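Team,

Forwarding the record for the chain on the shared tracking sheet. I've put the sequence and predicted structure together so nobody has to dig through attachments.
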Amino acid sequence: MYLSSTKQIVQTLSANEEYDKNLTSRLNEAAEKLENLEVQMRYTSLSLLDIQSLTEGLNGSFVKHIEEKINGVYEKLTNSSKRVAFTAGVTSASYSWSSGTLMYYKVINNVGGGYNPNTGIFTAPVGDYVFYVSIQGYDTNNIYIDIVLNGSSKVRAVAYSNSRDQYDVGTNFVTLRLRKGDTVWVRHYRGTGYWTDSDAPRTTFS
């Protein structure tokens, strides 16, 4: 009877030990799976953060791109509203003109209103400008004219005619950097007279 009880106890202990081993193995497997799950969750979180960061970056770049486009359009509109350009011409010829400012009364274009046909003078806002002048001599007369900035001659156009070459044409142009309020006009230098047409002027200032 005693031997039988002892044997049963040993068998029970062995069974419990085997059970403990199985339980320990299962617990280890569960712990390993839990660890793997935590690692996967960690990488998933990092991936989500990366996606969020990338999305924010793309959104930031897109917004910046749109802002640059809007600023560019605004700048173009602003600059176009500040553009200045003019062309004016003489509509009646003169055989005897020999001094002073050449008056271009016919205004063909005057964007920005810088040219005054009553004075023959262009008054500038700030900027760089190209001025062009043309003059046709009267018959065999010679005529010299200057483009003038604030009273100082910058370039000269000459229409030099003779008995074999009447109604010659002289042209010239100049680029000037102007400050606000600077004035530019065309002034007589030497010679007499000029020729033009009333419908489409030959003697012009731009």
